């Protein structure tokens, strides 16, 4: 009889004590890990979508170049006066200098 009365009184509280820390951990992990990663990915996708001819870029491997041609998935970079190299668009790490507003580069 004592066990039945004790279990009935502690039902909602034991649920909170059992699953509360788990829910709290998920919320903390979401705000510390998942959400910032989603923001960085969104910023990177916007940068890759806004590439244009004449932009000076750095690839993931550290190669500096100027965009000569853009395809859907590829980018042709001019590394020096003679060399042109083709990369995947996703290989662009950052834009160091944007092209002029009039597009004459």
From TrEMBL:
<dbReference type="GO" id="GO:0005886">
    <property type="term" value="C:plasma membrane"/>
</dbReference>
<dbReference type="Pfam" id="PF02699">
    <property type="entry name" value="YajC"/>
</dbReference>
<keyword id="KW-0811">Translocation</keyword>
<keyword id="KW-0472">Membrane</keyword>
<feature type="transmembrane region" description="Helical">
    <location>
        <begin position="15"/>
        <end position="34"/>
    </location>
</feature>
<keyword id="KW-1133">Transmembrane helix</keyword>
<keyword id="KW-0813">Transport</keyword>
<protein>
    <submittedName>
        <fullName>Preprotein translocase subunit YajC</fullName>
    </submittedName>
</protein>
<dbReference type="InterPro" id="IPR003849">
    <property type="entry name" value="Preprotein_translocase_YajC"/>
</dbReference>
<keyword id="KW-1003">Cell membrane</keyword>
<dbReference type="GO" id="GO:0015031">
    <property type="term" value="P:protein transport"/>
</dbReference>
<keyword id="KW-0812">Transmembrane</keyword>
<comment type="similarity">
    <text>Belongs to the YajC family.</text>
</comment>
<keyword id="KW-0653">Protein transport</keyword>
